[in-house]
Design goal:
Rossmann fold, globular, 11 helices, alpha+beta, Lipocalin
Length: 698
């Protein structure tokens, strides 16, 4: 080909590429509710001990099924290619390799010859399953085999607090955390599943309905029947979790609350969990349930991680029975010293902000599985306000920061091809909303920050000042973070500015900030939100005449509380909201939530900062139902029928009060749903109804 023809070809090619890029850009569209079904994520990315492959869990939605699907995928270390571990992508989660990489254990809800090898739980509970083991065969794996027997049928826990599968360091067995139905009686379990009997909190409430108290099972690891029951207490409901082997394979370290004060840990770790050691010399002696208590802290000691030499255990600790999301200290305990006292590596609980206002580093739950770098150094994930960090600590010396990135990544494996594949490429087909961190001073001068999401620049039909949707987070000790939030970006794609305030009580800003709204829930934190909206109005970002409210859980409480305080909002939508604090204490699975925030039980009088507080009267004053007769804002209420955290009765109470007093309102109840809606069709319906409600009240 001549140089002239080559140049002409290059010109034509460049024009074609330019037109293709232009066409691709022109084909971008706003985010839609249906994009919910296209979301995909990768979890539990696990590299084989041999370094030649990795497995992970693919999570995605299938329109033909109500909830999220999960399946195991494998990455080949030689080619970097990812493919399903099994044809048809049957259910699988929580993969763990044996130490030699020759076997893989995981949890699956699949049936065996049409029969479930585990006890069924309701749709709105955490998914359960049986234990499966697959052995290596050539360059891949053989067909998985179900481990267990018809008599035992354990319900393996798949949550992040209790659930854990761990091979012994020698590879000659494994432990798994499961619920064993026979501990509470076969007939009772059958009645529960037939709908004849509803359990009364012995199942740990939200997310755990249908489970019995957890036990730790030992299994031979080669798909034969499970071995003996290691740890169980049939006399009372004890939940054991997160077992870790010592390097010699003779002991298990785990956390458990063996007190009589058993309460749900779903979004709430504030009870007396301690670390316990179980001596397991299964090869030479029969098993027993004798445990040695390692910690005696009155608050939660959780997430144990044993050092490579077996001399220390790293864990998270809170020195009080406080709010449902508290500030953890990082502690280390010597295992070879009888009566040894823990050493606090990070005293985040008592740390204050720096002089420049920077929040203290707060370790986050759970600790990494690979927390120990060597026998003397640990790596820990944590937060400072809106940012995430990973830090390294010497267990005998000061901290050494290694990262302050927004999303710290774990150290890459030696094989560079072993990495998770990219997901959600479809987002490139959507216009991107704009996002910024905003800061302001509240009514009393306290510094607050939040996230402001604005419509994509390409959508020229939307201009400042935008109508604003105030979208407070739940908890209240949760937090809004920068990054892609489907709900916020969907609202922005419809022309709204979305404001997510991190009001006082938000997690990540230190204990003093966390406790700042205690005894004042529904008071100063609401003022933080309103002063933030005023700041955005003054800046010219949002329209003072077009303000809306949307929130879930405590965000739903904020929504309902705010419409009793002001008529400034055109419309509101609350999902699974707290509307009555007396009902919350009496009906919720989390009595400690109201008891901590208000100082006691509804009939008690307590002293706080030199004054006596009638707890019941304060709860009544801060309940949206108390002032529902004053509400003029059109309010849509969405509620799950099996919400154990914020029971349906509260949504019905607020709806009845609004309706009786002539306020425009609707109540929608979602079937077979829990506190955090798990069925994607219900998530989509809730978003469509919310957008339609706001559009109808423009």
């Amino acid at each position: 080909m001549s140089r002239r023809r080559l140049s002409w070809f290059a010109l034509v090619l460049s024009v074609v590429c330019w037109r293709a890029e232009f066409a691709a850009a022109a084909e971008k569209t706003p985010l839609t509710v249906d994009d919910l079904y296209r979301q995909e994520s990768i979890t539990d990315f696990t590299v084989s001990p041999r370094g030649d492959e990795a497995v992970y869990v693919r999570n995605w939605y299938d329109a033909s099924q109500p909830g999220r699907r999960t399946a195991l995928w494998r990455v080949d270390g030689e080619t970097g290619r990812a493919e399903p571990l099994e044809a048809g992508e049957p259910d699988g989660r929580m993969p763990v390799y044996s130490p030699d990489g020759e076997r893989l254990a995981f949890v699956s809800s699949r049936a065996v010859d049409g029969v479930l090898p585990y006890r069924r739980v309701p749709l709105y509970s955490d998914p359960t399953g049986g234990l499966w083991i697959v052995e290596r065969e050539g360059a891949g794996f053989a067909k998985p085999k179900q481990a267990g027997n018809e008599f035992l049928k354990p319900q393996l826990l798949t949550d992040g607090f209790y659930g854990r599968i761990r091979f012994t360091p020698q590879g000659d067995g494994l432990v798994a955390v499961a619920g064993i139905s026979r501990l509470v009686g076969e007939d009772e379990i059958r009645r529960r599943l037939d709908g004849q009997l509803r359990p009364v909190f012995d199942d740990q409430g939200e997310g755990y309905e249908g489970y019995s108290p957890s036990v730790v099972l030992f299994h031979s690891g080669d798909a034969r029947a499970p071995g003996p029951l290691l740890i169980a207490d049939a006399k009372r409901p004890i939940w054991y979790g997160d077992p870790q082997w010592t390097p010699d394979g003779k002991q298990i370290i785990l956390h458990a609350n063996r007190s009589d004060d058993q309460e749900s840990v779903r979004y709430s770790i504030n009870k007396n969990y301690d670390l316990w050691r179980f001596d397991h010399e299964y090869a030479t002696s029969p098993p027993s349930d004798d445990l040695t208590q390692l910690t005696t802290n009155p608050g939660p000691d959780v997430s144990p991680r044993v050092s490579p030499d077996g001399k220390h255990v790293l864990y998270l600790s809170v020195p009080r029975n406080g709010p449902h999301m508290d500030v953890f200290n990082l502690c280390v305990l010597a295992l070879d010293g009888e009566g040894a006292k823990p050493k606090v590596l990070i005293n985040a609980h008592d740390a204050e902000r720096d002089d420049d206002g920077t929040p203290p580093f707060q370790p986050t739950f759970p600790l990494r599985d690979d927390s120990w770098i060597d026998d003397e150094h640990v790596r820990v994930r944590g937060v400072r306000g809106l940012t995430s960090e990973t830090m390294v600590f010497h267990i005998g010396g000061p901290e050494v920061p290694i990262s302050a990135s927004a999303k710290p990544e774990p150290e890459p494996p030696a094989n560079k091809k072993l990495k998770p594949p990219a997901t959600n490429a479809w987002l490139a087909e959507r216009y991107r909303a704009r996002e910024e961190v905003v800061r302001w001073k509240s009514f009393d001068g306290l510094g607050i920050e939040g996230i402001l999401t604005l419509p994509p620049e390409e959508l020229k039909q939307y201009t400042k000042p935008y109508p604003v949707i105030v979208y407070p987070h739940g908890g209240p000790h949760s937090a809004s973070k920068p990054g892609f939030n489907f709900t916020a970006h969907l609202f922005a794609a419809h022309g709204y500015a979305v404001f997510q305030p991190n009001f006082r009580g938000t997690y990540g800003y230190g204990r003093k900030f966390l406790d700042a709204a205690r005894f004042d829930m529904g008071g100063s934190d609401m003022q933080d939100i309103l002063t933030g909206v005023d700041m955005l109005i003054e800046r010219g970002d949002v329209d003072a005449e077009r303000q809306y409210l949307f929130g879930i859980s405590y965000g739903g409480y904020s929504t309902c509380r705010l419409v009793t305080l002001t008529d400034r909002f055109r419309a509101a939508c609350a999902q699974n909201a707290v509307t009555d604090l007396h009902a919350m204490w009496h009906l919720s699975d989390l009595q400690s939530w109201t008891e901590w925030e208000f100082g006691g039980k509804p009939w008690e009088t307590v002293e706080h900062e030199g004054r006596k507080i009638d707890v019941g009267a304060l709860m009544r004053d801060r309940s949206p139902t108390t002032y529902a007769h004053k509400v003029k804002t059109p309010t849509l209420l969405l509620h799950s029928d099996h919400d154990r955290r914020c029971p349906l009765a509260m949504g019905q109470m607020f709806y009845r009060a609004l309706k009786e007093n002539g306020c425009e309102t609707e109540l929608v109840i979602y079937k077979d749903e829990r506190h955090g809606m798990w069925q994607v069709k219900h998530q989509a319906d809730a978003l469509r109804r919310t957008l339609a409600w706001f559009e109808a009240h423009k």
